[in-house]
User: Which sequence fits this backbone?
């Protein structure tokens, strides 16, 4: 929803609509134990406060409003496409099977992943946003 390339909320709002950034996106690295959602933004120093406010506004929108059905479907397609593309080689497949075992998910988790993604509802997205996007920690690195 947030980062997914040029169709993600952050890109369309902060770059296309507001012109506050030349690069923006988000990522969630897979880790055992705790995790983090990271948003990255390339902006002029004079735009930093407005850009940060825009990120916070998108977090709030995810908490306040269910994701529209078409946006959720688009995000699922993008996620499943990325998942498939990243597993094209035997080496990547072996890497992920080992990672899933290390994370306690079982080596067959990747085979179950598409059905799990398809089962996600707009209400579940909103519940997760309410739980994890309520008090973001912000770090800005500027010249």
Assistant:
């Amino acid at each position: 929803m947030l980062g997914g390339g040029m169709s993600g909320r952050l890109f369309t709002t902060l770059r296309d609509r507001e012109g506050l950034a030349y690069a923006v996106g988000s990522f969630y690295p897979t880790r055992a134990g705790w995790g983090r959602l990271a948003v990255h933004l390339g902006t002029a120093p004079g735009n930093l406060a407005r850009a940060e406010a825009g990120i916070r506004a998108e977090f709030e929108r995810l908490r306040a409003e269910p994701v529209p059905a078409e946006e959720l479907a688009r995000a699922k397609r993008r996620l499943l496409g990325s998942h498939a593309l990243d597993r094209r080689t035997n080496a990547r497949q072996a890497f992920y099977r080992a990672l899933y075992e290390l994370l306690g998910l079982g080596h067959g988790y990747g085979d179950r992943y598409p059905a799990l993604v398809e089962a996600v509802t707009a209400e579940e997205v909103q519940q997760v946003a309410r739980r994890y996007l309520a008090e973001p920690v912000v770090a800005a690195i500027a010249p």
In short: The helical segments are 9-17, 48-64, 69-85, 90-102, 109-118, 122-132. The first strand starts at residue 23 and ends at 27. The radius of gyration is 17 Å. The chain has a mean pLDDT of 90.
